[in-house]
Amino acid sequence: MLLTLAWGSLFFPGLFALCTWALRRSRPEWTNTDCVMISTRLVSSVQAVLATGSGIVIMRSCSDVITGS
């Protein structure tokens, strides 16, 4: 569990930094605020898709989601 937390703590800020850097390089006419806003929305979308996917996996693998059996 701690390993997953550690990877998530590295993955999402890293994705944000990579997106911000790439947008600044590919769109120099955009302001810093524009790049940060788009990067934030992209990272939030990725996090939502991953959370939805993990929820679907949990629902399909358990016969009773409440008790986990």
Model description:
The protein is mostly helical and 69 residues long. It has one domain. 80% of the residues lie in helices and 0% in strands. The chain has 2 helices and no strands. The protein has helices at residues 2-26, 32-61. Helix 1 (2-26) runs antiparallel to helix 2 (32-61). The protein is elongated, with a radius of gyration of 17 Å. The protein starts with a helix and ends in an 8-residue tail after the last helix. Residues 1-17 form the signal peptide. This is TLC domain-containing protein 3A isoform 4. Keywords: Signal. It comes from Daubentonia madagascariensis (Aye-aye).
Radius of gyration: 17 Å
Low-confidence stretches: none
Q: Biggest sheet, in brief?
A: none
Q: How many strands in all? A: 0
SSE pattern, N- to C-terminal: HH
Q: Give the N-terminus to C-terminus distance in angstroms.
A: 20 Å
Number of helical segments? 2
Structural class comes to mainly alpha
User: What's the rounded overall pLDDT mean?
Assistant: 92
Reconstruct the topology from this structure.
Blueprint: H1 2-26, H2 32-61
Organism: Daubentonia madagascariensis (Aye-aye)
Signal peptide: 1-17
Protein name: TLC domain-containing protein 3A isoform 4
